[in-house]
Amino acid sequence: MREVYISGVGMTPFVSKTTTLPHVQGGQALNAALEDSGLDWAEIGLLVVGAVGTGMSSAPLVLHEMAWTGIPAVAVENASATGTAAFEQARAAVASGQVDTAAVVGIGSLGALLMSRAAEGERAPDLISVSGMAVPAVPFALMKQARMHRHGESADTSLLVVEKNLFNASRNPMAQRNKALTMDELKAAPMLVDPLRRVESCPIGDGAAAVVITSRRLANVSRVVRVAAAVAETDKWHGAAAFMPDLGVTKRVSARAYEQADIRPDSVDVVEVHEAFSVEELQYIEDLGLAAEGKASFAMADGDFHIGGRVAVSPSGGLIGRGHPGGATGLSQFVEITQQIRGQSGVRQHDGARVGFAQMIGAGGVSYAHILVGED
């Protein structure tokens, strides 16, 4: 298998709603990624589109926004992990030698999907079928209750995640939420599913992101970003499977990713995780080996996971701050980490960022882990 590099990244701002069609947004993000890479559209050998709630022909529609070059175009859907799954399809094609250069685009909206389900049945959206297991907040409310029981965390502990991520998002022009909140304001927020408050849930909206992947070390930037590890897995059965996700899957894929990249957790500088709900970030920080079991909240309170701390976790604002459109969510993690490694993140720059970890899950038990490494 060949080495794989990220040569270009681009995205549109994540917003609560837009009248711009998803494939048009996809073309905008892809043009930005091509400009960033210094490559021409004619050099792309494969287009993979991660699409949520867009209907048929998502990939050809994005292709037509660019030009009819005759290259293969395929669409991928994998719940919240749609963009990451699309990235993995393109990465594998480049690594195997199928193509030298591929483009990945994430489009579509979870909000649009919910509305279409409601329109079809003329009733409220069927959240159970959308999530694949239960109303999305329920299993993570149970996760929070489990952590409170096992580790003595209070109901307000996970608000540390929200406070940090909303502050990061307030400095990210691409983020859907752009206002930082004080801890007092967060504590006053209404409950969603006890003990999760509404502010601990990510917003869904619209947006697109794109990444250009190559087998060559391009000289378009001073620091090249290499994909050092790529691991995917699904849930294994466990005793609480009817109510909660497999809490072991992220730990398993992370361990395999570290082994594949031949690095240790203490080498990681920047992390983007799937914290659709605040408590997830605490859990995944521990699963990634960045804190001992039950200790993530203490390290969070000490500033270890803030920009400028030991490891910058969700410097983009994460799903809670940056937003969670669906198709573009996973790819936006690669955009953020790539820019951090290149030193292009402005006021959100984490000094000395060289190694990044992207972690993503999706309904139904899919889990991904990718490690990106900067090389001068």
Concise overview:
The chain is α/β, with parallel strands linked by helices and 376 residues long. Helix content is 36%, strand content 19%. β11 and β12 form a beta hairpin.
Structure, described:
- It is a single chain.
- The protein is 36% helix and 19% strand.
- It is an alpha/beta fold and 376 residues long.
- The protein has a domain of 120 residues: 3-Layer(aba) Sandwich (Peroxisomal Thiolase, Chain A, domain 1), CATH 3.40.47.10.
- The strands form 2 sheets. A 10-stranded mixed sheet has the order 3-2-4-7-1-8-12-11-9-10, with helices on both faces. The chain has a two-stranded antiparallel sheet with strand order 5-6.
- A hairpin with a 3-residue loop joins strand 11 and strand 12.
- The longest helix is centred in the first third of the chain and has 16 residues.
- About 2% of the residues have low confidence.
Across the major sheet, the strand order is: 3-2-4-7-1-8-12-11-9-10
Helix-strand topology string: EHEHEHEHHHHHEEEEHEHHEHHEE
**Topology-level CATH name of the domain at 5-113 and 204-214:** Peroxisomal Thiolase, Chain A, domain 1
Q: Could you estimate the helical fraction of the residues in percent? A: 25-40%
Topology:
Elements: E1 5-11, H1 22-37, E2 46-52, H2 58-66, E3 73-76, H3 82-95, E4 101-108, H4 110-121, H5 127-131, H6 137-151, H7 159-170, H8 183-187, E5 191-193, E6 196-197, E7 209-214, E8 224-234, H9 249-261, E9 270-272, H10 278-287, H11 296-301, E10 312-313, H12 318-322, H13 329-342, E11 355-362, E12 366-375
Parallel strand pairs: 2-3, 2-4, 9-10, 9-11
Antiparallel strand pairs: 1-7, 1-8, 4-7, 5-6, 8-12, 11-12
